Amino acid sequence: MSPSPGTMPMPGPMSMDPVALLPELIILAGAVTGLVIGLFLPRRRQHVVAWICAIALVAAAAATLAALTRPDRVAFESYAIDPATNAARLTVSLATLLAICLAARWARDHPRESE
What is the 3-class SS of the chain, one letter each residue? Predict the structure, then answer.
């Protein structure tokens, strides 16, 4: 049965692909994990949070490089995954990784290091 004129069809199961958002989900998981672990670590061990976030960013960059081999597509009926999206994903992952590396010495033993 086709939808009546002027109405949007319901999205099918194929458009709901959370793997299409894997780099973003990896960054989200790394950030949340880092914040939660940072709550419970003593100050002298807060550097572990930087390692967790760095590993998540490297994994997100790797997932983005893997996504470059796939054809362009749309996820969740609204999120286009094309070369521009992948370039932005890679840029954000690598720039944030660079910021973590550059701030590591400065933030060492700071009360808000894991934030």
Answer: CCCCCCCCCCCCHHHCCHHHHHHHHHHHHHHHHHHHHHHHCCHHHCHHHHHHHHHHHHHHHHHHHHHCCCCCEEECCCEEECHHHHHHHHHHHHHHHHHHHHHHHHHCCCCCCCC
State how far the Cα of 115 lies from the Cα of 113, in Å rounded to an integer.
6
- Both structure tokens of 53: 């976030």
pLDDT of residue 8: 47
Place 109 in a pLDDT band, splitting at 50, 70 and 90: low
| Confidence at residue 34, expressed as pLDDT on a 0 to 100 scale | 92
- What residues have CB less than 8 Å from 115, skipping those under 6 apart? 35, 38
Q: Which two tokens stand for residue 83?
A: 């070369």
